[in-house]
Amino acid sequence: MRKLIYSCLSLYRKIRGRFWSRIFRYQCKSSGEKIGVSCFCPISSAAEVSVGDHFHSNGLRVLGRGKVEIGRYFHSGQNCKIMLGSHDYDGGDAIPYGKKDTCKSVSIGDFVWLGTDVTISGNIHIGTGAIVAMGSVVVKDVPDFAIVGGNPAKVIKYRDIDHFNHLLAEGKFN
Length: 174
Hints:
7-stranded mixed sheet; 21% helix
């Protein structure tokens, strides 16, 4: 009985993943091969999102107006948000903000991993091989191979670049 239940759950998860992956592809401006999405990942209708090959998300939301480019072998945990534009509060026609929205962009390099509950603000670049710890709020650029965490996110340390390059040369990807 236990094996039957696990088999049914496995089949359900596979079907659900394929369904949400197709919905995600439909929302994107462009997408690479092998897209894996485990739940609904809403993308604002005012956002242009492009993702590379081997994209995997357990819950990424893109909000606001602007452009998002995500490289190859991207992984995200649950409840991750990319906040693009916001309301015009400096030159707006009313208080606390005007009716016009600002437009921002986010660029994420190859081999990036976002932990659960990460928030990324607009006009940010996250470098190749970076890791963003769970619960982090990214408000400035993240260098290549950096491991960042906190609110606001700060560099904790850097990945072992020699080991990273060794795995890259051997083609060992997840």
